[in-house]
Amino acid sequence: MHSLDVSIVIPIYNEVETLPRLVERVREAMTPGWGDGDEAQFELVLVDDGSRDGSRKLLKSLAAQTPWLQVRYLIRNYGQSTALQAGFDAARGRFIVTLDGDLQNDPLDIPMMIQMLRDDEEIDMVSGWRKERQDAELSRKLPSKMANALISKVTKVQLHDYGCALKAYRAQIIHDLRLYGELHRFIPALAAEVGARIVEVPVRHHARSAGVSKYGIDRTIRVILDLLWIRFTMRFLHRPIHAFGGVALFMLFFGLSILGWLGFEKLVLGEDIGGRPLLFLGVLLTLMGTQLLAVGLLGELLIRIYHEPSGRRQYLLRNEREI
């Protein structure tokens, strides 16, 4: 049972300059419809991800003055995905909203997104689209568009803006997910994998007024690696033998064919095959194919060990009230 209507989860890392305005903007957006004080039907969950600029001390002061604000303090900087997971674990609302703490996302868009979830029970997630971005020059906008197109193609979840942190969810969808590494960028794809029905809506976007961006060039490499993982899990998580077995059989076929032909030349035709590069290729393909096939079989065993001893199911059931 959910004790509140809305939980707003925001990871915080070195945002001491924006924190007071962030809390005030959330108050302006939420108190007209969800009350204030101890009777408020919403909560703001701020997760301090190991800040070193005084954010932790300020968060403690703000929490003491604000009944609907709860703070989680991580012992070190784990990254945005882990901070979001900590916020999701603490959230008590029927609807969960995420956004960044730099106020480039506008909290005033939250009521509109929550209303969409209330009006249409077919919608499980509303994803923000920064249609008019205010912070990115062409050198950033073009790679962003290319990344969004690539992610949409690989995950089969068509969105214009995967990078927008402003999103609203039904709590059940979020609690069916677990975030590892830096998978926060792919929450829509992960949500779709557990059956979420997603819509995208344009939202307001503001230029950064304080602080600096936390993203660097290494972000591109991490996105590509995470995308490979997402693609693998979406296709092969419950059937790893299909991922490795196809390549293994391909290698075994050609490796054994080469060795069979060389064996025929040696035994029937009497030719010397000891120094031929083709022999090494045949042996290499056969060994690699055997190893990949073994990896696929081990993966199948691990999947069964993961699910069966604890009675964990391979599927999720939709709540009948949502049908």
Explain the overall architecture.
By secondary structure, the chain is α/β, with parallel strands linked by helices. The protein has 2 domains: 4-236, Spore Coat Polysaccharide Biosynthesis Protein SpsA, Chain A (Alpha-Beta Complex), CATH 3.90.550; 240-307. It has 10 helices and 7 strands. The chain has helices at 19-34, 55-65, 80-90, 110-119, 138-155, 171-175, 187-193, 218-236, 240-269, 277-307; strands spanning 4-12, 42-48, 69-73, 93-98, 125-129, 167-170, 198-202. The protein has a 7-stranded mixed sheet with strand order 3-2-1-4-6-5-7. Helix 1 links the parallel strand 1 (4-12) and strand 2. Helix 9 (240-269) packs antiparallel against helix 10. The protein is elongated and about 90 Å long. The chain starts with a strand and ends in a 16-residue tail after the last helix. The model has no long low-confidence stretch (mean pLDDT 84).
